[in-house]
Amino acid sequence: MERTLIIIKPDAVQRRLIGRIIQRFEDKGLVVAGMKFMHISKELAERHYAPHKGKPFYPGLIEYITGGPVVVMVLAGYRAIEIARMLMGKTFGYEAAPGTIRGDFGSSKTYNLVHGSDGPETATGEIALYFKEDELLDYQPASGEWVSKPDEV
Ligand code: IDP
Ligand code: MG
Predict the structure, then answer these.
(1) Which of 4, 29, 35, 73 sits at 20 to 30 Å (Cα–Cα) from 133?
(2) 150 falls in which pLDDT band (50, 70, 90)?
(3) Whole-number Å distance between alpha carbons of 72 and 117
(4) How far is CA 118 from CA 85, 90, 125, 142, in A?
(5) Is ligand 1 within 6 A of the CB of residue 109?
């Protein structure tokens, strides 16, 4: 099963949207493989967002992601990366489609509620930033292939 790193960002935690955001991922069939509630340090934020260093929004992004506690999760499932990104919606809230997390809960460029890995290599690297392998659990959800059937044609 594919894994992706999801962060419920400080704005979503402050706005008490944790449950509703996790619900959307679960509803679609993704399962929680790991989860922690933490305050991201400046050092960790800089490692996570290293690809954006030098961009005009980078200082504000570091301030944002370190500005309060977050929920960090690894979600697992068939096509987990792509599905999570689709549920999140486009980066800027004002461009994100209704029905997506970002589209339904805000219109900000910076404060966009949720992070999700953007590809398999990014996912592997980001997961390693936040979790040790033994903190991630592999199991089959009881719904099994009624919700997600990887081998269908
Ligand atoms: P993504 O989160 O949809 O993958 P990225 O381009 O990787 O988007 O940007 C990382 C984060 O940086 C965004 O989620 C958002 O919080 C912030 N960000 C990106 N572009 C801008 C911008 O132009 N202005 C302000 N904040 C931005
Ligand atoms: Mg990104």
Answers:
(1) 29
(2) confident
(3) 12
(4) 7, 12, 11, 28
(5) yes
57 lines ligand 1 (CB under 6 A): yes
Residues 16-38 pLDDT 10s: 999 999 999 999 999 999 999 99
Average pLDDT over residues 131-148: 93
At position 148, the amino acid (one-letter code) is: S
| 3-state secondary structure (DSSP) of residue 16 | coil
Q: How far away, in angstroms, is 85 Cα from ligand 2 center?
A: 10
Q: Select from 110, 112, 38 the least CA-distant residue to 68.
A: 38
CA angle 136, 81, 2 (to 5 degrees): 45
